[in-house]
Design a protein that fits this description.
Length: 115
């Protein structure tokens, strides 16, 4: 299967509306294109994009980020979060980091240590 890639430019977009649908509390982002297509993003998806964008733009070293979809069980997530999450690809879920944590933290006082 060949994935179709579409790059959206500002000139491709008629309007973007952020509003909760009637009877809902979470925002939906609707992007209306010149072609007549509409792309609707749920609030959590936009929040993940914003988190990744801000993380790249404000970090002195990070230049990219890949978010991957994970289904988390209740004990692996905060109570108010949905089971399906977009998490940074290069970072393992925190539950998998517990055992090697002590070896990772050695020599943390070095002024030249790269995170």
């Amino acid at each position: 299967m060949t994935a179709k890639r579409t790059v959206l430019k500002n000139s491709d977009i008629v309007e973007i509306t952020l509003a909760p649908p009637p009877g809902h509390q979470h925002l939906r982002t609707t992007i209306k294109l010149n072609s007549g297509e509409e792309i609707v993003l749920q609030e959590a998806t936009v929040a993940n994009l914003v988190r990744a964008y801000v993380g790249i733009k404000t970090h002195p070293q990070n230049t990219s980020c890949t978010l991957v979809s994970y289904e988390l069980v209740d004990q692996d997530k905060k109570k108010e979060f949905a089971s399906w999450q977009l998490l940074e690809k290069d970072k393992e879920p925190i539950v998998n980091l517990c055992s090697p944590l002590t070896s990772t933290l050695t020599n943390t006082n070095s002024p030249n240590k790269t995170p």
